[in-house]
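Q: What changes when magnesium ion is included in the input?
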Amino acid sequence: MRILAIETSCDETSIAVLESKNDGSFNLLSNIVSSQIKIHAPYGGVVPMLAKREHQRNLLPILKKSLQESKLLKISNFPASPAGGQFLISKQTSNSKTLNLKLKNLKTILDREPELLKKLLPFLKKYQKPNIDLIAVTNGPGLEPALWVGVNFAKALGYFWNLPVMPINHVEGHIIANWLPQPENKIPPTLPLKREELDSSPSFLKEGWGGFPSSVHFPAICLVVSGGHTQLVLMKKLGQYKILGETRDDAAGEAFDKLAKMLNLGYPGGPIISQIAAKLESKIRNSKSPPAPPKGGGLPPFREGWGGFSPIVKLPRPMLNTKDYDFSFSGLKTAALYFVKTLSPAQLKKLTPAICVEFQQAAIDVLVSKTIRAAKEFGARTILLSGGVAANDLLRETLKRTTYSLSEVEGSKINFSVPPKEFCTDNAAMIALTAAMKAVSLFIKGGLRGISKNEIPPRLLASLKLWRSGPFTKGGAKYNWQKIRVDSNLRLA
Ligand code: ADP
Ligand code: MG
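A: The predicted holo structure follows.
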């Protein structure tokens, strides 16, 4: 079964093709990601209408590239006939439907994406229907104008090529990215766990979903941290999620982005801040006389000296000790802002690295502490990290180490999983894999068996109900993604 997946929820336009095989393995045939970072950078954040425009511009070239890389792009055998400018679409669909009728309907589907329509028409004329079985598309959560471009594009392709379209939740996609190829997560099955062993072990456990090689055991606690989301999710098994807590204001990535804007560092803030912090940290580590460790509380006055290191910058850890699993990052950002306001331009320049170190540490302290507490409370056997902020080296390292030391204390084995960095930030590969899991779980209960291609489209139509009745289509990207939960039998929750 081959799946074409489309992701346009924010500022990355991405299309991937994934081939899932009958033995449960899969091949990622392509995963093209085009980032709009440069376009949004001057604004210090994503501008929804600009994102919509860029998705319209980018989708067709990316589709072409993705199909090309997957070796699925073939010139059409049915050139335009001279009579009336009409031509046959394909052998199957040619009987009654002419191109003109199809084109008319495409115009309706892409009514609000005229620029995309203009590019799509010649493409559909020029190339054959590719050999794929299903189209998957992110239908939320995300920026509404951006999401609609992808959704309508998927609908248009599904309609023209007569393929089922499966809506996929973006946050679930981030979680499922943990099942994408991940060389750094090969974890041996036995205690005692030593870091060196963990890092070098070639063994893979086979447990969980349909034989996908995975080091993930359930229940799992998933920390999803990105530019738009910060959620702590209890995953009882594949497809079953419960949100334990989430941010009450800014997402973690958003806080990084806002701090970077405040410090005039550029966009997106996460990678820049972590780079600056890492530089200072390594300088401190290599220093013969490192500064005294920070003493808690308050914001001490600026002090000249050792590179302005963080003993003089102390930021709060919002909601660190609250009993719930919620987060808050706007307080952290505001505390940083108040501190920055007390500084002269020269002081700010000098202290910027120290602010980055402390801000990153404050965010990580809260994220890691709550994740570990949830893992203990719910008896997690795996901790999963994902989303754009999961690309942060210090967060990856800290959560990994803390998980393993928790394993030693608790005496039970707790695995840790994080996708490779390229699959942490938005990409369509994770959407394709989520769709593959859902599609296959339609047919399988308790094991994996051969999937007959002919069976797929009618059964998948069940998932399209969701499409029509889902909260997203009622307007508004603000909906509870739990609502589109699908269990292993693909019953809609
Ligand atoms: P979303 O799914 O919300 O659209 P992504 O998953 O693409 O977002 O994540 C983008 C976010 O990740 C941005 O806010 C960016 O600052 C943050 N990010 C990326 N790399 C890092 C990093 N190394 N450290 C911290 N944050 C990061
Ligand atoms: Mg993004």
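Observations recorded in class: The pocket of adenosine-5'-diphosphate (ligand 1) is lined by residues 9-10, 226-229, 253-254, 256-257, 268-271, 274, 387-389, 391-392, 425-426 (CB under 6 Å).
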